[in-house]
Amino acid sequence: MKKPDIAKRIARQSRVTEAEAADRLDRMIHQILSNLRKGKGTSLPGLGKLTRGPDGRPVFEPEGGKHRA
């Protein structure tokens, strides 16, 4: 799924324009990346957590194991 597809789905489910949904998605992505740069993890409810690994690369931690993002 690509970013425009996600924005369309957000727009439909939130009853906002696709432009507003795309803006919300951009802000969320920016916040996640900012947290990772600062060494902070980001919880993704229902999915897991994104953290920064020892080598600085993102690590996705789903329930039951770790995977590189």
Description:
- The chain is an alpha+beta fold and 69 residues long.
- It has one domain.
- The chain is built from two helices and four strands; from the N terminus they run ααββββ.
- Strand 2 and strand 3 form a beta hairpin.
- Helix 1 packs across helix 2 (18-37).
- The longest helix is centred in the middle third of the chain and has 20 residues, at 18-37.
- The protein is elongated.
- The two termini are 15 Å apart.
The end-to-end distance, rounded to whole angstroms, is: 15 Å
What is the strand arrangement across the widest sheet? 1-2-3-4
Q: Tell me the number of helical segments per DSSP (H or I, 4 or more residues long).
A: 2
Let me know the largest β-sheet: 4 strands, antiparallel
Number of strands: 4
**Hey, roughly how much beta strand do the residues contain?**
15-25%
Brief descriptors of the model:
alpha+beta, four-stranded antiparallel sheet, 2 helices, elongated
Topology:
Elements: H1 3-14, H2 18-37, E1 42-44, E2 48-52, E3 58-62, E4 67-68
Antiparallel strand pairs: 1-2, 2-3, 3-4
Helix pairs in contact: 1-2
Quick overview:
The chain has two helices and four strands. It is elongated and about 40 Å long.
